[in-house]
Amino acid sequence: MEIDFREIFTAGMILFAVIDILGSIPIIVDLRTRVGKIQSEKASIVAGCIMIAFLFVGEQILNLIGIDINSFAVAGAFVLFFLALEMILGIRLYRDEEPKTASIVPLAFPLVAGPGVMTTVLALRAEYQTINIALAIVLNIIVVYVVLKLSGTIERMIGSNGLSVIRKVFGVVLLAIAVKLFATNVKGLLN
Q1: Which residue, of 61, 67, 70, 122, is most buried by count of CB atoms within 10 Å of its CB?
Q2: How do residues 57-109 score in pLDDT, each as one tens digit?
Q3: pLDDT digits over 128-177, tens only?
Q4: How does pLDDT run across 170-191, given as a tens digit for each residue?
Q5: In terms of Cα–Cα distance, which of 148, 73, 180, 145 is closest to 116?
Q6: How many CA atoms lie within 13 A of 123 on its CB side?
Q7: How many of the other CB atoms lie within 10 Å of CB of 37?
């Protein structure tokens, strides 16, 4: 295992696109007004722990139920594809219940460390070294923490149109990642 900055950067950008913390600012602001104070530290730490734990034991869980990493990665490509469509088209395919509290649910899970992120983490394991993915997760959690702390300020600076543009750009990037992930792992299924 060696640290590869290119892998860290690529895995970090993929996770950044899937987490979509900038696109989630309107949701975060709405949660803050509905439930009061959001504990940014708690939400970030819990989300990071969920992702790191899934990075290390996710594959064993899959093996336990008899699913190989290529199958999971192909399924993950479909999840990423639909997440990208949500981001690009501005539609909601996945709906969740209304939150009562905000720091752990729905912020840490499923907003930050949701099913799409978990799928992505395992799919990344098929292509990158674990240490590089773990470092990419840590870097993303730092970004998540900063955005949670400064969500109101960021929303005022960028504006709703700016957030919409950022969301759509990351949606296109995520769509390309989903296609690549599918193409790479479907070969492994067919062989």
Answers
A1: 122
A2: 988 988 899 988 788 778 878 877 887 888 888 887 765 555 555 678 778 88
A3: 999 999 999 999 999 999 999 998 888 889 887 888 888 888 888 878 88
A4: 888 878 888 888 888 888 788 7
A5: 73
A6: 31
A7: 8
**How high is the pLDDT of residue 111?**
82
Planar angle of CA 113, 177, 184, nearest 5 degrees = 110
What are the CA-CA distances from residue 21 to residues 64, 69, 129, 155, 182 (Å)? 32, 26, 24, 12, 24
* C-beta of residue 131 within 8 angstroms of C-beta of residue 3: yes
**What single string gives the DSSP state of each residue in 61-108?**
HHHHTT--HHHHHHHHHHHHHHHHHHHHHT--S---PPPS--IIIIII
Of 1, 8, 119, 104, which is closest to residue 55 (Cα–Cα)? 119
Contact 13, 113 (CB under 8 A): no
Which residue type sits at 132? Answer: N
C-alpha separations of 44 from 20, 92, 114, 144, 172 in Å: 14, 24, 13, 7, 26
